[in-house]
Design brief:
The complex is a heterodimer of chains A (about 280) and B (about 290). Chain A has about 280 residues and is an alpha/beta fold. Chain A has a domain at about 25-120 and about 195-275: P-loop containing nucleotide triphosphate hydrolases (Rossmann fold, 3-Layer(aba) Sandwich). In chain A, about 30% of the residues lie in helices and about 25% in strands. Chain A contains ten helices and ten strands. Chain A has helices at about 65-75, 105-110, 125-135, 140-155, 160, 175-185, 205-215, 230-235, 260-265, 270-275, and strands at about 25-40, 40-50, 55-60, 85-90, 95, 110-115, 190-195, 220-225, 240-245, 250-255. Chain A has a six-stranded mixed sheet with strand order 6-7-8-3-9-10, sandwiched between helices. The longest helix of chain B has about 40 residues, at about 1-40. Chain B has eleven helices and two strands, in the order ααββααααααααα. The radius of gyration of chain B is 24 Å and the shape is globular. The model of chain B has no long low-confidence stretch (mean pLDDT about 90). With about 290 residues, chain B is mostly helical. In chain B, about 75% of the residues lie in helices and about 0% in strands. The chains are: A alpha/beta (about 280), B mainly alpha (about 290). The interface between A and B is medium-sized, with 32 and 24 residues.
Chain lengths: ~280, ~290
């Protein structure tokens, strides 16, 4: 049974997801012994983690422990960062992500990403969604229009913007911009969504709206979300993983179901972090 | 005590405000005096005939028709060459090299040195290379190409700044959407870098249109109507220089020509800022 959508902010200790009611625990992304360096500086080291299909997995931990770097390795955004080296293995639904012959463009189409700061393109709302579709080869006007309306409805933006689709996306509020960015990622029908603190640049109200939206993505997308907001992670995550800096590099301390991480962690560091004593 | 302090502060505030304000007034006044002088002496000589007729009696009489045409042609050659080269290099510098790369550093350093080279040196280079080595002679083509060399550093650096001012988030989110580098460049980065390009263009054109030294040795003095780009042609700035330095009694027409030059410059500046505003606005709405 799925729990009803919580109202963010009102109940800090909302009952945890019992267990992935959302999904069978079937790995969609499997990461093995992954390490990432910026030049000589390690960002994280030796991370092995499975991300289950259709679930929301939260990555938590203090700043600078490699959570964002971990996300960017999964869609090979690391390719465009000068001096960035990734070692290890990532399998995405059987695809060897880090293999040199892997089609990066197709990979990024399957794995959407949402950034901390909403960053719609300086184009109209419509063009923000139409541009990626056209670039990926969809030319049919009707199908483009249908896709756009569908995703805008999915992110709850349709009624707010349907009368001004041709006005600049930069005129939207922060929360609306972030929802547009989520729509932009969704319009390419990805299977997974990587979210890098999608709510941290938003005011509490907008943050709540975006959070509800993310909860609604469960089952349809495999969501991997980095968050500093432990209460948020407790509210929305099926699984959680704690990163921490040890010996100068980020490490995966513990991963498991949200219930396990937040209520019965094995590691003392996890216990200290989730109880608010550390971090 | 407090009052004394306030008075003390008030005095210093007043002094600082006066000094800063005075400097601004001085600069503005110089510009107004210059413009006023040109307007006062030049305005009553301006007429349709003056703008279209050929010069007579070494420029003392007649108009500046062929000179305006030569100036436009020189500028056209200059921009036709420097714009594509400049934008190409700027894209390369901003998008395909890092700050640390040797080639990028070398290119930037050479551009900075080039932009500080006195125009007379460009003139001599143009004379030696375009006029003699390439055999183009004293011609509008030689002059335009020499000006292009002069304008390129300014154009490239400010266009590059335009590209660098584009938020990194656009590039990241475009890459994350699986958009190719080429379409990111043409659809997102280039439009966003247009203000920088326009600033470079205005500075470059301003420098080119007012240039005398570089043109004396390359496009020459001939004040006839040019028939092709290989004809020699006299630019406005050279005409003004010649009338005021070499032609006794040419002052009136020199003033009138200077007025035309100033108006042209102001018009180019105005058009560029209008374009920035409207073009960008339109892009956001319709593209």
């Amino acid at each position: 049974m799925r729990p009803s959508t919580p109202t963010p902010g009102t109940q800090p200790w909302f009952p945890l997801q019992e267990r992935p009611a959302c999904c069978e625990p079937k790995p969609f992304i499997e990461v093995e012994q992954l390490s990432l360096h910026y030049g000589q500086k390690p960002a994280f080291h030796d991370v092995t983690l499975s991300i289950n299909k259709g679930c929301i997995t939260a990555l938590v931990g203090p700043s600078g422990c490699g959570k964002t770097s971990f996300l960017t390795a999964l869609n090979r955004l690391t390719d465009i960062i000068p001096g960035c080296r990734v070692a290890g293995r990532i399998r995405l639904d059987g695809l060897d992500v880090l293999a040199p012959h892997t089609n990066v463009i197709r990979l990024r189409r399957r794995v959407g990403m949402i950034f901390q700061k909403p960053n719609p393109f300086p184009l109209s709302i419509l063009k923000n969604l139409e541009f990626p579709l056209r670039e990926h080869g969809l030319k049919d006007r009707d199908r483009i229009a249908t896709s756009i309306e569908t995703v805008l409805r999915d992110v709850g933006l349709w009624d707010e913007v349907k009368d001004r689709l041709n006005s600049s996306a930069l005129a939207l509020s922060g929360g609306q911009q972030q929802r547009l960015c989520i729509a932009r990622a969704m319009v390419l029908s990805p299977e997974a969504l990587l979210m890098d603190e999608p709510c941290s640049a938003l005011d509490p109200l907008s943050s709540g709206v975006v959070e509800d939206l993310i909860v609604g993505l469960r089952n349809r997308y495999t969501v991997l979300i980095v968050t500093h907001n432990l209460a948020q992670a407790r509210r929305i995550a099926d699984y959680a993983a704690l990163f921490w800096v040890q010996n100068g590099a980020g490490q995966l301390i513990e991963a498991g179901t949200a219930k396990h991480i937040f209520e019965a962690p094995r590691e003392p560091l996890t216990a200290a972090y989730v109880s608010g004593m550390r971090g | 005590m407090v009052k004394a302090l306030e008075r003390h502060h008030g005095g210093r505030e007043w002094l600082a405000t006066t000094l800063v304000g005075g400097a601004a007034v001085l600069v503005t006044a110089t510009f107004c005096w210059l413009l006023g002088d040109i307007l006062w002496h030049g305005l009553n000589h301006i007429s349709w005939t003056f703008l279209t007729a050929p010069p007579r009696n070494a420029g003392r009489e007649g108009g500046i028709g062929p000179i305006i045409v030569s100036t436009a042609l020189i500028l056209g050659v200059c921009l036709g060459v420097s714009l594509p080269l400049g934008v190409g290099t700027a894209v390369f510098l901003a998008e395909f090299t890092t700050d640390e790369s040797l080639f990028g550093r070398l290119t930037r350093r050479s551009l900075d040195v080039l932009s500080g080279v006195p125009s007379i040196v460009f003139g001599l280079f143009g004379n030696a290379f375009f006029c003699k080595t390439l055999g183009l002679g004293f011609s509008i083509l030689s002059g335009g190409l020499t000006l292009a060399c002069m304008v390129l550093p300014i154009l490239i650096r400010s266009t590059e700044e335009g590209f660098r001012a584009v938020p990194a988030g656009y590039r990241l989110s475009a890459a994350a959407l699986g958009l190719s580098r080429t379409s990111t460049l043409t659809h997102l980065l280039l439009p966003a870098a247009v203000p920088g390009l326009l600033v470079g263009l205005v500075l470059g054109v301003g420098r080119a249109i007012a240039e005398t030294a570089a043109l004396i040795f390359t496009s020459g003095y001939v004040d006839r109507m040019p028939e092709s780009l290989l004809d020699s042609g006299r630019a406005l700035s050279i005409h003004i220089f010649d009338l005021s330095m070499n032609v006794p009694g040419g002052d009136a027409n020199a003033y009138a020509s200077a007025l035309v030059l100033v108006v042209l410059l102001l018009a180019i500046n105005g058009t560029a800022s209008w374009l920035t505003e409207h073009w960008l606005h339109r892009r956001i709405v319709t593209v």
